[in-house]
Amino acid sequence: MMLGEHSSLPITHCGAYRVHGYLDGTTKPKDPTDANWDNLDNLVKSWLDHTMSQSLLTMILKPQPTTNSVWDTLDALFRDNNYSSAIELDNELRSLVQGDRAITDYCQKMKAISDLLANIDGPVPEKTLVTYMLNGLSPNFENIYMLIRHKELFPSFLEARSTLVSKEFRVNRPPATSPSHYDHGSSPFFLLANSNNTNWNHSNNSNRRPYNNRPSSNRRPNDASNNH
């Protein structure tokens, strides 16, 4: 039987504290005044109460209930609804599509429905769950869909999820931008600076007199003047 999506909580608690007999009725009080049994029974019953909604708690409320009587009532109530619930959940799982959900949210939703089906004795085979997941993907994952479907070894649900998350990260990653550098030889600024320097050097060189035309400070006086 199941208590909604939290059905494992009271069973886990009872197993940890070795009080499962209070659920199935195998642990009996020693006598009508067994205070220790009464205290433990109330404790286990409180664990059950915390797994139920207020409307369900009101429905099964009885005068002076024991843990076992509450558990049996829940078992009968949910057993009647298991078959119809399984059909509804299976249809929901089969028709679930990703839409605008992120891959992690989409897979979490599928896993939650699958767990609910397992709780009502309608477990979904893992290969079927992966197939449902692939069928509901958005068109952005078409290439990954084909890759996974044609793998020699069909992946597990977690393996397929990891592949899809990696693909989603690459799709959503912003494109890389080329860095702008102004200190290399192809930079317009560099060319302009070199061009200006070249023009400046050229103009300065054009105003210089040739070296050979410069007057020599070591030239001797005119021979004619010496003859006088």
TrEMBL record:
Please give the residue ranges the record annotates as the region Disordered.
Answer: 200-228
Q: Which Pfam families match?
A: Retrotran_gag_2
Q: What's the protein name?
A: Retrotransposon gag domain-containing protein
